[in-house]
Every structure is written in C-alpha cells, then in structure tokens.
Amino acid sequence: MRVLVVDDELALAGMVAAYLSRDGFDTLLAHTGPDAVASARENRPDVVVLDLGLPGMDGIEVCRQIRTFSDCYIIMVTARNDEVDTLIGLSVGADDYVTKPFGVRELLARIKTLQRRPRGGLGAATQAEEPPRVFGDLRVDPAGREVHVAGVQIELTPTEFDILATLAARPKLAFSRRQILDTVWGPNWTGDDHVVDVHIAHLRQKLGDDPAAPRYVRTVRGVGYRMGHG
Predict the structure, then answer these.
(1) 154-188 pLDDT, tens digit each
(2) Has residue 139 got a pLDDT over 50?
(3) For residues 202 and 36, what is the distance between their CA atoms, to the nearest angstrom?
(4) Same domain as 69, residue 32
(5) Domain holding 174: CATH number?
(6) At how many degrees (to 10) do helices 59-66 and 83-91 cross?
(7) In terms of Cα–Cα distance, which of 72, 68, 3, 61 is closest to 32?
(8) Which residues bind DNA (predicted)?
C-alpha cells in the first residue's frame, strides 16, 4: 500500500514516513499544497495523510482537488481540536482525522483500518449486484455509484455515497452510528462515532433534505438513522 504523507514540518513528516516504511508501506513525502496535489496525481497513493496547515495551498483545498481525480483514503491532520476544520475537511471528502499531537501508532492503526475497508459500504461485489432503489424523487444506483434527485445527478463524496447506499439497501432498518461505522468504515475503526453525524448533515444538504423534516434520511431518536419514503 502506498501512503503519501503531507506536512510542512519536515521532521514530523520524515518520522511518520520512516515509521510507516518500517511497517511495510511504500511512503512518499510532500511539504506544500501544490506538491501534494501533483504527487497524488502522479503517484496514485492509496492513502493520503494530509496536514491542513500547508504553504501554497491549504489542506482543505488539497483534499478538494485530490477528490476530483482520486478515490484514495484521506486522513486529515489538524493542529488543534478544531471542530470547524474537521467539519469542512469531512465535507470535501476526507475519510478520517487525527489531531496533533498524535501517536504514530494511532495513525498506523487508522491507516490499517482504512486498508481493511473496501470502497463501498456494502462491498464492491455486493453493490454491483444491487438494483437501483427509489425513494420518491431520490434514486440510488449502487452499481453505478450514482445518485439522482428529481432526475438531477448529485455529486457525493465516496463516504457520503457509502452511507446512503448502506441505508438504502435495508430501508426498513434503523441503523445505529456504530452499525454505520462497522459497515462503511469497518469494525476495527476507532474514533469519534459522531463523524457519522457530520457526514449525514452534508449528505442531507446535498440531497436538499430538510433536517427538521427529512424525506430521505430520517433520524430515529435514540437509535440513529434510516431511509425515509421520499
């Protein structure tokens, strides 16, 4: 597995890369935003460990640009426990985040968890066999990984699509956050389970779903989320 480590703190980036290399990963380094985008485009990493405070282009914009050509896993690194940074980063396509200072073993565990997570919450083979599902104006096509609302295609991040496909596959089931994490991120994922709420909020926004009276993704009080009828 190839990992691109992006951080303008050269010593920290080098230490992380060396640790990952000793664990068998093929590691690459970038220290500026533009270099990170160029390296991701050229080298096609499986995982990008992306610091947000970069010269030349911040990590949010780097994440946004990488998402235009790559479905790699992106782990954001924030300099502080800043909820705004986390919300924005997840909204543009990051899969997970860690906060500085972090232990390299923690980061390694996060990467290995993502490594075991297939793209597509139901698994690629299962999604390829799933027929499109319709909920009023909403159409979810697992095989094509496309979503339409009233005939208009909606661009979702990979994680947003995986969550929606998971809910749509069993529309009568109310999923807990933990069940969504286990299905989409994998059972070995560690971190704040409220990351699900962040992705759900952005998913609803893109679908035009009013969180006060959602038609497509409903909140089940005390449990989690389920599909609505549209």
Answers:
(1) 988 778 898 999 999 999 999 999 999 888 877 76
(2) yes
(3) 25
(4) yes
(5) 1.10.10.10
(6) 20
(7) 61
(8) 130-229
